[in-house]
Design goal:
The complex is a heterodimer of chains A (159) and B (786). Chain A is α+β, with helices and mostly antiparallel strands and 159 residues long. Chain A folds into two domains: 77 residues, Beta-grasp domain (Ubiquitin-like (UB roll)); 71 residues, [2Fe-2S]-binding domain (DNA polymerase, domain 1, Orthogonal Bundle). In chain A, 34% of the residues lie in helices and 17% in strands. Chain A is built from five helices and five strands, in the order E-E-H-E-E-E-H-H-H-H. A five-stranded mixed sheet of chain A has the order 2-1-5-3-4, with helices on both faces. In chain A, helix 2 crosses helix 5. Chain A is globular. The termini of chain A are far apart. The chains are: A alpha+beta (159), B alpha+beta (786). Chain A: InterPro entries: 2Fe-2S-bd, 2Fe-2S-bd_dom_sf, 2Fe-2S_ferredoxin-like_sf, 2Fe-2S_ferredoxin-type, Beta-grasp_dom_sf, Diverse_Oxidoreductases. Chain A: Pathway: Alkaloid degradation; nicotine degradation. Chain A: Keywords: 2Fe-2S, Iron, Iron-sulfur, Metal-binding, Oxidoreductase.
Amino acid sequence: MEHEITLIVNGAARRVRVPARRLLSDCLRHDLGLTGTHVGCEHGVCGCCTVLLEGRPVRSCLTFAVTVDGAEITTVEGLAPADGRLSPVQRAFAECHGLQCGFCTPGFLCTVTALLAENPAPTEEEVLEGISGNLCRCTGYQNIVKAVHRAAELLAEEE
Amino acid sequence: MTTRLFGEPVQRREDPRLLTGQGRYLDDLGRDALAAAFVRSPHAHARIRDIDVAPALDVEGLVAIYTWEDLPERVGRPLPLLIPHPALTHGRTAHPLARDVVRHVGEPVVMVVAADRYAAEDACALIEVEYESLKPVVGLEEAVQGANLVHHDVPGNIGAHLVQEVPAADGRGAREAIETAPHTLAFRLDIERSASMPLEGRGVYARWDGRDLRVYSSTQTSTSVRMAVAAALGLPLPQVEVIAPDVGGGFGVKIVHPWPEEILVPWAAMRLGREVKWAEDRREHFISSAHERGQVQYVRVGFDDDGRLLGLEVTILHDHGAYTPYGIIVPIVTSTQLLGPYKVGAYRVEFSSVYTNTVQVTPYRGAGRPQGVFCMERTMDKIARYLGKDRTEVRAANFIQPEEFPYDQGMTFQDGRPLIYDSGDYPEMLRMVKELIGWDSFERAPGRGIGIGCYVEGTGVGPYEGGHVQITSDGRVHVSTGLTSQGQGHETVFAQIAATELGVPIERISVVTGDTRRFGYAVGTFASRAAVVSGNAIALACRKVREKALRIAADALEADPADLEIADGVVHVAGTPRASIPLSTVAVLANPLRYAFDEEAARATQFSGTAAPDRPPVAEGEEPGLEGRDYYSPIRSTFAAGMHAAVVETDPDTAEIRIVRYAVVHDCGKLINPMIVEGQIHGGVAQGVGGALYERMVYDQHGQLVNASFMDFLMPYATEVPRVETAHLETPSPLNPLGIKGAGEAGVIPVSAVIASAVEDAEGIPIDRMPISPSDLFHLRAGRRR
């Protein structure tokens, strides 16, 4: 049986019919065509599928789309401001070489965006803790940690 | 604006798309394609008695179900054995779908195609396969006993056996040299399995238009997948194109091809006349792709009072799993790269490559080197301990000296060519790493130790790569090469090379990799070879284009080509900036036209007066267009090197091992982009830390992989990986025009050796098995107390 739900994705209301078992990650990727959210394990460990649900990071592979009917969701496609520039977090990742293959990157960007919204000047320990739910197999994390600190600086400069 | 970008930390040109969700990975393509899923064997070793698909037939959205019997003869054949070797006397490969017998948990048995993946998996769950279980062979020691066989026609489960011997300068063999040495040691080392584990699994998407087949695959070699698919499906090569889109990491596992799915998905697309896609899920990746590392090594070494090696004998048991599609490259690499930066006197290495009922073993970043380096570096530490010498002193006593290059190790390397080191400076590297970590001032304390590991890595293996460079009339430069990218930043470093060679701003340069429509001849991305082989090919292609551009510009400017230079995309007479012509115009002039499609093009049409009427518009020996193609085929491998050192602390109660500092000195010849090289090293070290402390594939006695998930197979998070301190040494390779070596695998290679060295130093207990978990260390301590 299918259900009609509405998701507010990156500021736009999207109406979609999904079976109850459709994962939010599959709904975003396959039903809405927002393929920036990646799926790395489908059991909630790697963090590649992280999106923001009402501003808070969640594993979209562990979430049924029907359970978030009416909710606001931000995906990697919605992180950059409308003027075409990259967000401070995105710019910091580029500047610090915080990505290689880029597959885990959308999950990190969403996680870090939420982290810095809550804690604009995290300590080294807080950064490590904040990204400790996301796996990256390419970078060794060193430049990701650097990018989080740099993003905090960029955000502070913009205020 | 400078276009001398070689050597600069240029920001990556692939990042804007990857940061905004605009990357195109395999499963981002083919939104409307049918989905494939597979019924895979739940048994490690069993005979298939019957397959009943009837219960699945009513699944809504089901399109097709295929077993081995449904495959045409050509499609159902065993997959190719990619790298044959005379010593691989009993090579065996799988059928795309199991025929009669399954030999590891995860082997594909039935293929289902349905409207979407949910429906395909529903159908898989309903298909009933009846198995008669056979005795599984698990673990190297059980395998070599040969009581049970993985393949009934492979006695003793031995797929390959190879002995290589290099006598000492005086002609004595290793055994004799060891027996007559002042000191000897003998010991056993164990390394467990790990795996590449890219965050994007494998995947294939195929479309067939009735004549042409296009295949997208998350692969490290699109050109070779193309040839394999064309051969298996009986298609003329020009009708098949293969594209590697953005690939979410490879680390070796994606060099294997054709995977069963790379044959079956295109075949199903042709048969059904529909687009078909398969994207691997994580459990599938664990049980049906490939693993690496697992070896047992028996070592005997003879040495003198200074710790100089006189003879070394290593006997290796290598677990290659159920099949050998990639031949015996991994144990060959272990056997040869084990030598590292040292002169070992006489050397004898023997390996047996052995079948077990487990996932096949093919190269994972480092490709046998971490095991070889673990062996040699453990040997060095044991000698130092035995003689009561500093561990770095023993290493230094055995180093090949800078003036001894090129240095012939007297063996045959993995490319079938002599193992001759091209360049290096190992004493300087040791000095640098000791300084970086503070070796001489290190304060030892209970539970606090320091370790070191040295390696040499053969990189940039042939046979060749090519590059194509085209400058179009808009002044843009289009670079392509056939090998693929999985995050190495090729779009950036190859553009840096082109910018430097051509004198064109990098913003005007675009790079395409891994697309057979753009470049059909290539080998693939593995063995730290892309920068070396494609980088040089692109540089050579650029030089051809530059020469042609200068020739045409000289004609237009009525100047001598030797007086011309290119800066910022404009050709001008040296010292006379006003006598100039932009490359965009040169590109127009290079291509005589009949039709003017825009204002620029009008300058090259037949009444524009630019061509001499007494000569053919395209002169003899010339071709239209401002483009060039060239290849680089190395005579043999380049040899990068590195030395790592680490400080660890161990918890007296929990036996937890914490890496406090990690230092890397690295020599990959000339650096193209130091930011990217450092990124490669960081990532390699992180994988090495995983292999040293956390990652192991745990098979039970029935051949079940009991930790086939990210919950149970522990890959390091940010909280587990130390900050890596790096320093670079550049000894250019004399073998190639750019003097570069290769950096992709470097970081991972010595990490297990370094951590073992440091833990041993902290604990005073020999560390002869890797990985080492807190519980392993706890038991080692308990064993010492007993």
